[in-house]
Amino acid sequence: MNTTPTVHPVDPAFAADARITREQYQRLYAGSLEQPEAFWGRIGERLDWMTPPTVIKDTSFDLHDFRIRWYADGELNAAANCLDRHLAERGDKTAIIFEPDSPDAPAQHISYRELHARTCQAANALRALGVRKGDRVTIYLPMIPEAVVSMLACARIGAVHSVVFGGFAASSIADRVADCGSKLIITADEGRRGGRGVPLKANVDAALKLPGTNSVETVLVVRHSGAAVDMQMPRDRWFDAVVDSQPVECEPERMNAEDPLFILYTSGSTGKPKGVLHTTAGYLVYCAYTHEAVFDLREDDVYWCTADIGWVTGHSYIVYGPLANGATALVFEGVPTWPDSARFWQVIDKHAVTIFYTAPTAIRALMREGDEPVKSTSRGSLRLLGSVGEPINPEAWRWYFEVVGGSRCPVVDTWWQTETGGIMISPLPGAMDLKPGSATRPFFGVQPALVDPAGRVLEGEAEGNLVITDSWPGQMRTVYGDHQRFIDTYFRTYPGNYFSGDGCRRDADGDYWITGRVDDVINVSGHRIGTAEVESALVSHPKVAEAAVVGFPHDVKGQGIYAYVTLVAGEASSDGLRDELVRHVRAQIGPIATPDHLQWAPGLPKTRSGKIMRRILRKIAENATDQLGDTSTLADPSVVESLVRDRRVP
Ligand code: WTA
């Protein structure tokens, strides 16, 4: 890119009052790299410890001496840090504002004291049902207060939660339950989204009929929509019936800093989703501190992150970061476009939201509706905007800044991953000039580097693969049940470094611009989907012989899903079969994996050794058929011509 980006200098009024100014960032950043022990030791003091740590950083990315341990001899409880320690001074402060799907249903304000009591009751209920420290609990809930309560209840008793996004279908739930051997599932009768019901309990029932799921002893069902559901006694219990009668005090479990806090499944370039495991202290320190610094948090802020708790953004920046900081966080059950496309802005006005954190895909979708729905609202309470999940294109950034934020609110474009636990590269709003489309600078303690495919470090202005050269506290510790996969996935490509899977450019000022995934992961509306997962869903259909899936640029979703399918010999292609295969993928994985285009492929472009050349398939899907490159190494170059001819024009 040769175009000079627009620079929005730090707003002096904002900087005057900011938690971290430019000078402070420079000094603290340098200190965080020179003396990580001293830096993170000091930051760790923000938590309440049962035993304060003496060893702060004990890490090495060297494959012969690999270890990642932070605050390793400390003891603490994450839920106590999110609740108990606020009671003295913030007991009556609102912890959670719940805004239901329907604007006509009443919002709820839940104070820290109430959230503490409800969490203790749920924790006692889990204990009464036999859940012990180290046991796994699957949470498959809509965006309702019980989701937060359930996560914190697990943390309180040392159970490891695995939250499964409510948009996943039965077999995705089953895979995740089976992988970690959950003992208990917390779900609801139904979720509500855009006025429609989501049959959560029915999905759990279907999942538990699938193989590998008989570790589950109990299903707790939150009564939410009131829809009739099938209760199988004694397995299924109503949440309120078990929880409401419990005592409102529950002794928090003493956890070692490196005891697991949660597992969250995420897609990679190969195989089934990985159970990303985060531990207690490093994760909590990191998400609390990033939340405070990046969002320039104030005591009276009303903070709203629109993510779902089924994704890491919900874990770190709806639950653990904000609550560890004693903030007021809004939990929204609904969707941006229902009852109309002004809903986000109406909710901002209704609850006087000051910090708003959302995804580029939502911004682009709302931008298409024009400025009117936004301008029908005031948004006068806003002071800071954030973006996460995928690269934000400069047009969307500008619309967000100018129309949504009225050119008053800095936009923090935050780059991070499920694996990183918290924000890694992002502007600090009082310290950095903003450039639409750039995540700008690394957070304290984060050492990014760009490498070429051979692993050579690129200096200065450059574009390459993004690695992180040393550990930070929020880093994942392992892939649940498969430590080798953790090492192989993240540390073997560029030995001595954590490999993010993202491409990135650094400009002449030293600002970072994430360019997107360089592996076989596609980012659809900010959701990570492995091409391998969609392919295996397709080939699980009896009429499919082979499938190859790639991403292509999509105006609203960022990337869309393009599938090439070869049918088994003798099967005829038809529009009916195409619809059936698309439905099959939705039923296997969930609606987020719905292919946008499905092209019949008499053959796939393969090398003589049988490897599918995805580069070519990507170019065809992108309609860049003039850039197919060298096809002479293909076993049968003629397949390319037929694929180009039959391309489905997106
Ligand atoms: C992408 C979400 C550009 C990136 C927190 C990363 C981004 C993947 C940004 C992680 C951003 C996230 N700019 N790309 N600000 N934030 N990504 O695990 O490709 O769901 O690797 O974590 O999203 O997605 P995940």
Summarize the structure in words.
The model has no long low-confidence stretch (mean pLDDT 96). This protein folds into three domains: 12-79 and 261-516, 3-Layer(aba) Sandwich (Rossmann fold), CATH 3.40.50.12780; 111-258, 3-Layer(aba) Sandwich (Rossmann fold), CATH 3.40.50.980; 525-646, 2-Layer Sandwich (GMP Synthetase, Chain A, domain 3), CATH 3.30.300. The protein is globular, with a radius of gyration of 24 Å. It contains 21 helices and 31 strands. The chain has an eight-stranded mixed sheet with strand order 12-11-8-6-7-14-15-24, with helices on both faces. Strands 5-4-17-16-18-19-20 form a seven-stranded mixed sheet, sandwiched between helices. The chain is 30% helix and 23% strand. 5'-O-[(S)-ethoxy(hydroxy)phosphoryl]adenosine binds next to helix 12, strand 20, strand 25 and strand 26. 5'-O-[(S)-ethoxy(hydroxy)phosphoryl]adenosine (WTA) binds next to helix 12, strand 20, strand 25 and strand 26. Residues 84-470 form the AMP-dependent synthetase/ligase domain. The modification N6-acetyllysine is found at residue 611. ATP binds at residues 389-391, 413-418, 502, 517, 528. Belongs to the ATP-dependent AMP-binding enzyme family.
